[in-house]
Amino acid sequence: MSSQGPTIFDRILDGEIPCHRVYEDAQVLAFLDVSPLSNGHVLVIPKERKAFLHELSDESAAALGRVLPRLARAVLEATGATAYNVLQNNGSAAHQAVFHVHFHIIPKLGERGLGIGWQPGRLDPEAAPSLLARLQQALGTG
After folding, report:
1. 13 with 29: CB under 8 angstroms?
2. Annotated catalytic, 102?
3. What is the pTM (predicted TM-score) of this model?
4. Which of 11, 94, 104, 139 has its CA 20 to 30 A from that of 129?
5. Burial group, residue 14, by CB count within 10 angstroms (0-12, 13-18, 19+)
6. Which of 87, 86, 88, 82 is nearest to 109 (CA)?
7. What whole-number distance in Å separates Cα of residue 42 and Cα of residue 11?
8. CB atoms within 10 A of CB 9
9. How many helices (H) and strands (E) does the chain have?
10. Catalytic residue among 20, 95, 100, 102
């Protein structure tokens, strides 16, 4: 549960709000999005109630990682799509609207699906070694 009270996903997990369950196990629930970007848009949530991906336990993260490819295959088969996006946002500045970790599996069906405005930058070769060292230190590998 978030600091602002129960999210819609908490209420789904608690059985207060019904959903169209696609998949469920002890750690993960997947269901159809009620405001889909395309037919077959599925939401995948951990049952561990955390707002951000970096807050999840290794066990919940692993459970999500194990089921996401299986769900993606099911979405492709069920919809006939040949392309899809997996989207996961963290924080309001990154467009997170529900503060419970969730992944979107969004099939691309013609014009329907996720549209992205990608504006790549360039890795500064002089700053890269310092950034790399900080990342490795944060991971405990450097």
Report:
1. yes
2. yes
3. 0.91
4. 94
5. exposed
6. 82
7. 17
8. 24
9. 3, 5
10. 102
Where residue 5 falls among pLDDT bands split at 50, 70, 90?
confident
What single-letter DSSP state applies at residue 42? Answer: E
Could you tell me how far CA 122 lies from the centroid of its own chain?
26
Instruction: Using the structure block, give the residue that is written with the tokens 């169209």.
Output: 20
2 sits in the region (left: phi over 0; alpha: psi -120 to 50; else beta) called: beta
Q: Quickly count: other Cβ atoms within 10 Å of residue 118's Cβ.
A: 4
Q: How many CA atoms lie within 13 A of 32 on its CB side?
A: 11
Tokens of 142: 């450097």
Pairing of strands 103-107, 42-46: antiparallel
Total number of residues shown for the chain: 142
Give the 3-state secondary structure of residue 55: helix
- pLDDT mean over 77-85: 97
pLDDT in tens, 21-66: 999 999 999 999 999 999 999 999 999 999 999 999 999 999 999 9
Buried b (16+ CB within 10 A) or exposed e, 39-64: ebbbbbbbebbbbebeebeeebbebb
Q: What is the DSSP letter of 91?
A: S
Strand partners, 112: 109
